[in-house]
Amino acid sequence: MRNAWKVGMRFVCPEFMLNEEIAYAYGDSMPDYLDHSNIASVKPGDIIIMAKSVQDGIKHIGLVQSKPMFCIDGEIQAKDYLAKGIIRSENESLIEKFSNLEDHQDIVYFKVDWLKIETSELDVKFVNTKGFVSVKDNELLNKTVEEYLNKTTKMNKYIGILKSNKNMILTGAPGTGKTFLARKIAEQLILAPFSKEETTHKNIDIDNFFSWISSRGNDGKPYSTSYINDLKACTSYFEREFHGLHNLLSEIKNNSTEAIIERHNNASGSRSAFLNKLVEYANDSNDESLEGFPFDKNAKIQFVQFHPSYDYTDFVEGLRPVKKEGQHEIGFELKNGVFKDFCKRAVQNPDYNYVCIIDEINRGEIPKIFGELFFSIDPGYRGVKGKVKTQYANIQTEESRFTDDFEEGYFFVPENLYIIGTMNDIDRSIETFDFAIRRRFAWQEINAKESQRMLDNNEAWENMGENTKKPSEQILKEIKNRMDSLNNLIGNDSEMNLGLDYQIGAAYFLKFALYEKSDNPFEKLWENHLKLLLQEYLRGLPNRVANLEKLNNAYNLLNDTTEDNG
Question: Which pLDDT does position 25 carry in this prediction?
Fold first, then answer.
């Protein structure tokens, strides 16, 4: 059983402390009403609550990761009994901020894993208002932490599978939140560095660099697309020549840009412009270490939705109609598709992860869309060793060329790019997946019961529309009960003969938010969303009307249903 402790403070925790993820309390100069004698009882696995102030509610929640430690003049020593101190984060250099202060000569700390938990609905009671004090009724707090850890464990599982296999498909019944989950997995993955040693990011974020260039413009006007493309074409050259743009910046500091240009033979001037912009960017970022360069996470997730008319020219490359200025005729030029351009960015940013989400992946004609990339997306052939020549290899342009190394039209899928596909089990287009396609992806099924976690997520409710929000706990409980009752009947009724694949995911029940302020919101949810889906399920089956009535009764909690097997 975890103990729960509150950290007391004399005044509201300063913002810089919250940014550093530190909860603290006074040491030797601590007032009498802040009694930290209980710190000796804090152990790994306990819950720590960082309060806004002594009287106010929860600010942050964390799990204790180590036994309390004692510091004198920056030296850390273990102590059997520790009466006073601070809680601090993983970054041990932060202890210097306290060890040099006169009223913090003796500092007690232990490592805390701060959990990103929504605390708005937690109402926990404390034994008193002193410093390290225990929580009187902490069942809700423990439940919240356990749910978070279970969710995090599941997320880590998906990320582990994706990192090992490079490609993953989330499959399941309609409305199980596969797209929502895919985005969450992608958001977590891009925050981690890509390297076999799992080192921290060292290189400049190319996405942010070119966003910065585009925001600058020339004499108040945005730079032209051709100018930006000319600069982008220089990236892989300098990346290769200097083994990273951070090394190029170091070279620039020691030598003039003119000397570098002279050594690297630039006739067009675009490399000179690239170097000058890179110097401006470094100065603008005002960071000597290079590890503080801005990180553009939005550019590292590419969302694509397949459909029957989607093809190779949309995804990889193809001839597109263009009309040049001053000409009446329409010509054709080779243009990169969305996936090839995304791969180019990933190659130019080797220290970062990129994720391509392909929604409804089975609705497109997959062999036609991927073409020769079917070989390159295989986890065993990622990187240069899996290079292939594209269908338009003989007419590559400076803009469409993948890297300076591959002037003959070669292309590969980089190792730091991952693919997440989503699809519904019951879609009739599922037969487009042959065995060759299937073996290139890891498959993870998301069932209806598992998707119910979405209903506890504030963001999922807020995404439903303007001013929508998560309902009260009482309403939320009824939504879950109705969902369970309906899905139990769908999954277990032998006469209806639907089965678990036809259970309805939580995304359909999130639509309750659209009607919550109206009369009979549950009835509107049924009539406008659930009923129409179930009628489609029952189309062509015997006893359609009677079975739809049974499903309606289950939704309205009028049936006795068996336990959920989903």
Answer: 46
Instruction: Measure Cα distances from 323 to 92, 283, 328, 330 in Å.
Output: 60, 40, 7, 5
**Element counts in the chain: helices (H) and strands (E):** 21, 17
Q: What is the DSSP string of 16-50?
A: HHHHTT-B---STT--TTS--GGGGG--TT-EEEE
Dihedral sign (CA 85, 90, 95, 98):
negative
Nearest CA-CA partner of 358 in 224, 90, 205, 167:
167
Instruction: Single out the residue of 4, 52, 34 nearest to residue 131, CA to CA.
Output: 34
Whole-angstrom distance, CA of residue 315 vs CA of residue 317: 6
DSSP state letters, 289-317: SSTTS---GGGGEEEEE--TT--HHHHTE
Strands 417-424 and 167-172: parallel
Structure tokens at 326: 């001053």
**CA dihedral (4, 7, 12, 13) positive or negative:** negative
172 forms beta bridges with: 424, 446
Please give the Cα distance from 90 to 22 (Å, whole number).
Answer: 9
Please give the Cα distance from 527 to 436 (Å, whole number). 42
Q: pLDDT by residue (tens digit) across 362-419? A: 888 888 898 888 889 999 899 888 888 888 888 887 778 787 655 567 889 999 999 9
**Residue 102 confidence class, pLDDT cut points 50, 70, 90:** very low
Q: Is 404 helix (H, G, I), strand (E, B) or coil?
A: coil
Residue in this structure with the two tokens 């999922």, named with its chain if needed: 460
Tokens representing 293 are 């360069």
* Structural tokens at position 421: 């596909």
Alpha carbon separation from 180 to 210, 361, 418, 508 (Å, rounded): 28, 15, 17, 13
Q: 386 vs 337, 356, 381, 535, CA distance in Å?
A: 19, 18, 4, 47
Coil, helix or strand at residue 566 = coil
* 60 strand-pairing partners: 50
Question: SS3 string of 330-341?
Answer: CEEEEEECHHHH
Number of residues in the chain: 566
Position 512 confidence tier, pLDDT thresholds 50, 70, 90: very high
- Max CA-CA distance within the chain? 86
- Assigned token pair, 372: 């020769």
**Helix or strand or coil: residue 356?**
strand
pTM for the structure as a whole: 0.75
Residue 68 in this model has a pLDDT that exceeds 90:
no
Contact residues for 198 (Cβ-Cβ < 8 A; gap 6+): 192
The beta strands (E) that lie in 67-224 are given as: 69-72, 75-78, 106-109, 112-115, 133-134, 167-172
Which structure tokens are listed for 95?
């202890």
